[in-house]
């Protein structure tokens, strides 16, 4: 490797050994782990902008992706130039080889191998990085979203990261809008929860964890040093990819269950996928991953033809079709003028299904999408696809460097990976 990548990484990055939580035989224990992280995030972001010819007066979005897939816990950075209204009206320029928000422009700013996705680990790593020293928006999944906010996991009563609606109300068509969460609200309820635990369980406050539902599941302090009035979706916007994955997979599992009961066939929907080039993931039971959900949306007419009439699958097809229309109207980079009508149509199709699962992602779309889009615009600019795609993209670089002896192999791999994307 030339000296240039090393010099840049040595200026902005550190290798360190720290105690972090790992999962061993389904139990959490502490282990010493090697982490490579950026110790001067503002300086590194400025260096990247200079290398890419981004002037200081250009408005950018600094998107921090956080994910634990592929055997590594990674924190990544995309620096994305925001388009002005005048830019959209001007004649199209030559398209760059790679999009600013894509995986080929993504930079790793923190990485550690084989650790658990926990509050302690997230807090430790984000503190090392000092992400609060730059303006940022987070791209992640909803499990880590709640961890970063200090909220209970997604089986909790008050599991929505954006509001205080109980999950028991998610499937109630008569539900009312609940108060939106802010960082200050979470801090307030966490303090009350902590005081409750210390008063009621003075010898072991951890016993009070079972009572956290009485405090809107505010289990810990949020991991962001931002003002109390910060709305959650200002830093953790609606996540396009995971909303799409959650809603489509929930719908097709319900369809598969009804289809199986009506025909005694085993997993007929998944057989349809196998026969029509839609690859399913079997990692945690049958599911469709990102690109496969889009292929399914293209083949809904074919699916409708395959479902026997006695299954009454037309309601599922209608819901999937209305979600497809909604997806292309406001989940991507541009906003269709009739997106609110498309959301209304999807809502009506869901109500016809009498879906009573209490799906958090469905609740987010039905109850928060309108306000988010009116405030922030379409979901596309905030999508988390690059921080998901990095797992595969990083793998080839790591395979080249993991065989290197000594402590520098991870640092050298990050140096090469980032240098190619600068």
What is the helix content? 40-55%
Basic shape: globular
- Main sheet: strand order: 1-2-5-4-3-6
SSE order, one letter for each helix or strand: HEEHEEHEHEHHHHHHHHHHHH
| Secondary structure: number of strands | 6
Low-confidence stretches: 85-90
Protein described:
About 45% of the residues lie in helices and about 10% in strands. The chain has about 425 residues and is of the alpha+beta class. The protein has a 6-stranded mixed beta sheet with strand order 1-2-5-4-3-6, with helices on both faces. β1 (about 15-25) and β2 form a beta hairpin. α1 packs across α16, α8 (about 240-265) runs antiparallel to α12 and α11 (about 300-305) runs antiparallel to α12. The longest helix has 24 residues, at about 240-265. Residues about 85-90 have low confidence and may be disordered.
Question: Which secondary structure elements does this structure contain, and how are they paired or packed?
Answer:
Blueprint: H1 3-12, E1 13-24, E2 27-38, H2 41-51, E3 60-67, E4 72-81, H3 85-89, E5 107-113, H4 119-129, E6 137-139, H5 142-149, H6 183-200, H7 232-235, H8 240-263, H9 268-275, H10 290-298, H11 300-306, H12 314-330, H13 339-353, H14 360-376, H15 385-401, H16 409-419
Parallel strand pairs: 3-6
Antiparallel strand pairs: 1-2, 2-5, 3-4, 4-5
Short note summarizing the structure:
With 422 residues, the protein is an alpha+beta fold.
Keywords:
422 residues; alpha+beta; 6-stranded mixed sheet
